[in-house]
Structure formats: structure tokens, C-alpha cells
């Protein structure tokens, strides 16, 4: 088993999967003194080598080369969602901690088995999105905890636009089982709500497909049709154990683009939370009227100063590494990733059955990120 010593210096990191999202991870992790990227692995070793050269990583190769590397203590799993559990499990078997892109897995059974495997091995699993660790959502979280809007009552979120086929040259996988707007974009919104409110108790959902087939609009395959396997629009109602409720719209069918909408309404005010797919943004609130005449006056928006890290993807991995060294729980845990997956799968089941579905999993209290958390500090 690989362990991390408080005196080991920068923690060795290896990547498995070097697709588009790897660029932002590599750019950020290369600026964090507490970690050092040692090797990149991919099924396409030429692509891995090109990314290694681009980002000055000393080695590249296959996934197995990453697992065999003696200096790698944490594996970053950026493979396709269908292989997330398989790759993460292999990393744990090799004695490595794991940071994985969302979703943690695509079914409850294999994903729960992965977390049990990590627990037995004494290893950590962290799961994206770590946008919720950024200054935007964390400033909003601290405001809610401080009672700025009184007792939180309900939330509204929305992510709607016409769909990824207008820019993606190979969008079929985004409409296949394990994706759609729910599993592709839902993790950002539901992770934010779980971070703010805690455990989801039950969900109800309705969904639809605008068409059974869609066509690629850009690239060499433009005009090629592909099947739509999952709802391309879904509306989800969440009931939290704490009594709050949430309504969430996720759509690839809307000519009107509205993304990043997160609103929290409480007994003493309403708070606008930044786009959960971003690490920063405007946080502002309004107070309820005491009274007014025939027509309500325009409400005054009051800005909340943003505080905390705005660095970008990789922040959750950094928090996990520091948590291992100080023997504390990290924030973007596998437990949270599993609960969010459970919520989304329950929403799929509700949309298919027309009934409320109880969410069996739960999460422990999720701490806030300290406002003075500095990714550029050396702490290891």
C-alpha cells in the first residue's frame, strides 16, 4: 500500500486519460507546490506523449505504466465514464489513492464496491466536480451557514440549451446511457445542492426526448445521425433530509440558453449562487419587503464579497492530498460522489416509473473550505 509521509515533499501524481479536460488539470496542478505530475498514460500513447511534452511532464505511456510507476501516489482518472470504476479499482489495487472525474461510476453496485475496496485498502477516493470547492460556491455556503438568508427553504437550478451536437464532433456518447444532461451536467448542480443542504431523502422526475435521433452538425461526421438513448430534457424534484426542497431543470433541447442558474431561497432572503460549473462568480442576495403599496418597488441586490480559491480543476485533489497529510477528511469525497450518483440514478428511475424514489445513500456533514485556503502554498 502507498502511504503519504508528512515529510515526503510534493506528492507524485499520474494521469490515466489525457483527453480535452486534461489540459486544465495539468495547467493547474503544475502550479501547486504540494503535487508533482510524474507520468501521463492513455490508450493512445502518442497522445499521452504529446500532452507530456506540452506540459513538461517527465514520462508518458500506457495506463499500466502509470500504475507501475513507483513515484505515483495518486492517480487522476480522466477516462470515459464507462471505465471510471474499472480504472479507479485498478489504481486502488496498485496501492494508489484516486481522484476521478465525474461521475464516480454509472451504477450503484460497482461504485459501492469501489468505495469498499478503497476503505479496506486504507486509500482515499476523491470525485469531481471540485468546482464546489471554489470561491463562488464556498462563499455562498458560508453565507448560508452564517444565516444570511435565514433558514433555507428551497432551491431552484437550471441548465438548458440546444445541446452539444452544435459544437462536438462526436456527441453520441453524451446522449447514451450513462450520460444525457442528467449525468453529464447534473453532478455540478446536485453536488452544489448536497454541499449546501446535505443528504437527499427522495426524488421525483419527469423526462422526455425531443427526438429519437439527432444529427451531428460539425466536423467530418456532420450530417450523421445517432440514437438518443436517455431523456434529453429532465425535471427533478428533490426532498432533503433537512426539510428543504429543490427543483432542477436539465435540458439539451432548449433554444433559450440558460446555464449556471442556482438560487437558494430562505426565510430572510434569496441568494444567487454562481454557476456550479465554474470556480467563481457573483454572489448576491435580496431581502423580503416589509410592505409596499399597489406595486412592489424594484428589489435591491446586495453583493457578497467572494473569498477563497479560484484556481480551477485539481483543487479537490489538492485538498485530498493535504487532508491525507493532516489526517482529516477531505471535502470532495467518494461518499459525496456516490450519493450524487444515487440521486441521479433515482431521478432516472422516477422518470421511468412516474413515482417518487427514495434515495438510500446519505452523506456526512460536508465542511466548508477555509476562506484562506491557498493552493499556491507549500504545505507538504
Taken together, the total number of domains comes to: 2
Write down how many β-strands occur, each being a DSSP E stretch of 2 or more residues.
17
Helix/strand-derived class? alpha/beta
Strand order of the largest sheet: 16-15-14-13-7-12-11-8-17
- Kindly report the average pLDDT value: 94
Q: Given the C-alpha coordinates, what overall shape results?
A: globular
In which range does the helix fraction lie? 25-40%
Q: Note the total helix count.
A: 9
User: In the CATH scheme, what's the topology name of the largest domain?
Assistant: Dihydrodipicolinate Reductase, domain 2
* CATH hierarchy: architecture of the largest domain: 2-Layer Sandwich
Q: Which ranges are low-confidence, i.e. pLDDT below 50, for 5 or more consecutive residues?
A: 1-7
> Would you identify the CATH H-level superfamily of the largest domain?
Dihydrodipicolinate Reductase, domain 2
The secondary-structure element order is EHEHEHEHEHEHEHEEEEEEEEEHHE
Classified by CATH, the class of the largest domain is Alpha Beta
Q: Tell me the Rg in angstroms.
A: 21 Å
Give the N-terminus to C-terminus distance in angstroms: 19 Å
Main beta-sheet strand count, sense and barrel state: 9 strands, mixed
What fraction strand? 15-25%
Organism: Brachybacterium vulturis
InterPro entries: Gfo/Idh/MocA-like_OxRdtase_N, Gfo/Idh/MocA_oxidrdct_glycsds, GFO_IDH_MocA-like_dom, NAD(P)-bd_dom_sf
Domain GFO/IDH/MocA-like oxidoreductase: 137-272
Domain Gfo/Idh/MocA-like oxidoreductase N-terminal: 12-126
